[in-house]
């Protein structure tokens, strides 16, 4: 990938925009295909991990496997409930991936030095910075997304109250009016730590892709799918406990006993939630619901990379940019 002369060009180039749009469209396509798995993941995180601190919300639900959870939800709440919250999730995901891919490729273009290929360390650093930018800009959308996704769920704990949002904009206005603007950034600290997830994912993906394409070899869609799946599986397993904590804080019904606010208060909440889970369920309790999480995120990420690569390659070809797809 050529530098095209300067950071401003790298930031505003058509090539960077193509990567961002392709990444956003790839994520939307993949999430739509595997959305019921995301629904199961949310419930398993809540019932077996996330909401345990709220007097074990749905531990009364005996099932803890993805197929059974999906069957129960469809039977008790209707088939369409498997797609509850689809629009806010897709909207958040589209914006989030656009920001991430745009920032990642802009930074990569700006940091390109000579003909040498990117190294894993540089990819990791770029991924972390891109993740931080993404978290700061899109966390409010994910907070609203979490609220809307849990709306209408049949809670088995009386301490949890139902919310009544009419849509994305109504949720934003109610949260700001009733809980304050700062609530829109609930879970930001674990989210900032979790930038390691996509950073590690992209580092592994880029490294494996470079190796697979060494010597000018063409990389098939099947290989892209496998590489994307492996990269996501490693990143997700490494950061899963913090993802569960993030979901609890975004849901907004966790009442903290921690004193103090700001960063120290947030750290205290995170540590309390992690230690509470270990105390009640042992170290393996930190990974309750991982099966559903891996099934959903790995398949979604793998398909996303395939769609992303195809859209970007076709677009570059139409634009007459005769180059190999790199990001």
From TrEMBL:
It is a multi-pass membrane protein. The keyword Acyltransferase does not apply. GO terms for molecular function: ADP transmembrane transporter activity; AMP transmembrane transporter activity; ATP transmembrane transporter activity; coenzyme A transmembrane transporter activity; FAD transmembrane transporter activity; FMN transmembrane transporter activity; NAD transmembrane transporter activity. GO terms for cellular component: peroxisomal membrane. It is found in: Membrane. Solcar repeats lie at residues 14-110, 118-211, 219-314. Keywords: Membrane, Repeat, Transmembrane, Transmembrane helix, Transport. SUPFAM superfamilies: Mitochondrial carrier. Pfam families: Mito_carr. The chain crosses the membrane at residues 17-37, 85-104, 124-144, 224-242, 294-316. PANTHER family: PEROXISOMAL MEMBRANE PROTEIN PMP34-LIKE (PTHR45939:SF3), PEROXISOMAL MEMBRANE PROTEIN PMP34-RELATED (PTHR45939). Belongs to the mitochondrial carrier (TC 2.A.29) family. This is Solute carrier family 25 member 17. It comes from Oreochromis aureus. The gene is slc25a17l.
């Amino acid at each position: 990938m050529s530098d095209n002369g300067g950071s401003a060009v790298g930031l505003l180039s058509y090539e960077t925009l193509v990567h961002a749009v392709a990444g956003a469209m790839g994520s939307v396509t993949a999430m739509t295909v595997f959305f019921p798995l995301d629904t199961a993941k949310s419930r398993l995180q809540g019932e077996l991990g996330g909401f345990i601190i709220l007097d074990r919300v749905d531990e009364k639900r005996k099932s803890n496997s993805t197929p059974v959870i999906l069957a129960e939800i469809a039977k008790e709440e209707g088939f369409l409930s498997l797609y509850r919250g689809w629009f806010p999730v897709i909207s958040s995901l589209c914006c989030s991936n656009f920001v991430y891919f745009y920032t990642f490729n802009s930074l990569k273009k700006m940091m390109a030095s000579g003909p040498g290929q990117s190294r894993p360390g540089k990819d990791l650093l770029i991924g972390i910075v891109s993740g931080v930018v993404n978290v700061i800009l899109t966390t409010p959308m994910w907070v609203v997304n979490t609220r809307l996704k849990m709306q209408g769920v049949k809670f088995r704990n009386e301490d949890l109250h139902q919310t009544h949002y009419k849509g994305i904009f109504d949720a934003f206005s109610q949260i700001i009016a009733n809980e304050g603007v700062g609530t829109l950034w609930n879970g930001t600290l674990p989210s900032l730590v979790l930038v390691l997830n996509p950073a590690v994912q992209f580092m592994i993906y880029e490294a494996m892709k470079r190796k697979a394409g060494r010597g000018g070899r063409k990389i098939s869609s099947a290989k892209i799918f496998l590489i994307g799946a492996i990269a996501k599986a490693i990143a997700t397993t490494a950061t899963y406990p913090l993802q569960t904590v993030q979901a609890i804080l975004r849901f907004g019904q966790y009442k903290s006993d921690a004193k103090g606010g700001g960063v120290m208060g947030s750290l205290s909440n995170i540590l309390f939630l992690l230690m509470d889970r270990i105390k009640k369920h042992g170290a393996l309790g930190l990974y309750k619901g991982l099966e559903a999480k891996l099934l959903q995120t790995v398949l979604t990420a793998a398909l996303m990379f395939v769609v992303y690569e195809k859209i970007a390659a076709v677009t570059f070809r139409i634009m007459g940019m005769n180059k190999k797809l790199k990001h």
